[in-house]
Specification:
single chain; 64 residues; mainly alpha; 2 helices
Length: 64
């Protein structure tokens, strides 16, 4: 069983954006978004370290 991760996303804000786009939010949508946020943070940290930095910068989130 996967460990429950602390929420990084403000649920009401995310749901409001989806509602404005004309979409409903499933019960697992925010878990998926939260998991993706954790993954992005992990990737950014790896990129910063690979470039000899401890500081994560905006461009570390861009994967091309």
């Amino acid at each position: 069983m996967a460990k429950k991760m602390e929420p990084l996303v403000i649920a009401s804000k995310a749901k409001a954006i989806l509602k404005k786009a004309g979409c409903n939010t499933s019960s697992d949508a925010l878990d998926g978004l939260n998991g993706w946020a954790y993954w992005l943070l992990e990737q950014a940290a790896k990129r910063a370290k690979a470039n000899g930095r401890k500081t994560v910068r905006a461009h570390d989130f861009i994967n091309m």
